[in-house]
Amino acid sequence: MSLKKSDEFKSEAVQLALTSGLSRKQVAADLGIGLSTLNKWVAKHKHDDLMSGPHDDLHKELARLRKENRILREEREILKKATAFFASQKR
């Protein structure tokens, strides 16, 4: 049976995984969670950190802006395709 872990537990698990010097496999085993679960939490943490806004670290800020720019371009392309599709349906 799977129990939902608190956000605090997830945050502490991610910090352990990133800073303890132990392998993620070992951290997951020590905490009684699956390795894939821990990897998902770490990936989400990195994504959330990257998208959280301006950073003192210019490399992080540049990566965040590039990702945001890529997302916006993808959204724009979707809107263009949708507009073209609906315009062709009116004919």
Q: What's the arrangement of secondary structure elements?
A:
Layout: H1 7-19, H2 24-31, H3 35-50, H4 58-90
Helix pairs in contact: 1-2, 1-3, 2-3
Quickly describe the structure.
By secondary structure, the protein is mostly helical.
Q: What is the C-alpha radius of gyration, as a whole number of Å? A: 20 Å
User: Ranges with pLDDT <50 over ≥5 residues?
Assistant: none
Number of distinct beta strands: 0
- Principal-axis shape: elongated
pLDDT averaged over residues: 87
Helix and strand string, N-terminal first? HHHH
Number of helices: 4
Q: What is the CA-CA span between the terminal residues?
A: 56 Å
Approximately what portion of the residues adopt beta-strand conformation?
under 5%
Q: What structural class do the secondary elements suggest?
A: mainly alpha
Main β-sheet description: none
Q: Helix share of residues?
A: over 70%
Keywords:
91 residues, mainly alpha, 0% strand
Question: Can you tell me about this structure?
Answer:
- There is one protein chain.
- Helix content is 77%, strand content 0%.
- The protein is an all-alpha fold and 91 residues long.
